[in-house]
Amino acid sequence: MNYNLLDAVSRHTIQVFPHSWAAILISLDNCGMWNIRSEIWDRHYLGQQLYISLLSPNRSVRDEYNLPEDVMTCGVVEGMPRPPPFSS
């Protein structure tokens, strides 16, 4: 399968049919925590969202807050150690 990574169409929404998938290319322009989610409230409420953290060379709460103590993890990060806290 070949993806168009050079001149892809810029879109704000995509349609994904039932039992199918879509590949997306996202340009994130600054450090910090980004949330990719469904705009359908039922799915958003049930957790169909993804958080992406872009780390800055200087770890500061200006870009990203510390993880809450009660945050739930899953998948490959389930047993991994927590990142060190950010300094203010």
Automatic annotation (TrEMBL):
Signal peptide start and end residues: none
Plastocyanin-like domain sequence ranges: 2-58
Family: Belongs to the multicopper oxidase family.
Protein name as it appears in the record: Plastocyanin-like domain-containing protein
UniProt-recorded Gene Ontology molecular function terms: copper ion binding; oxidoreductase activity
Pfam families in UniProt: Cu-oxidase_2 (PF07731)
Gene3D superfamilies: Cupredoxins - blue copper proteins
Organism annotation: Hibiscus syriacus
InterPro entries noted in UniProt: Cu-oxidase_C, Cupredoxin
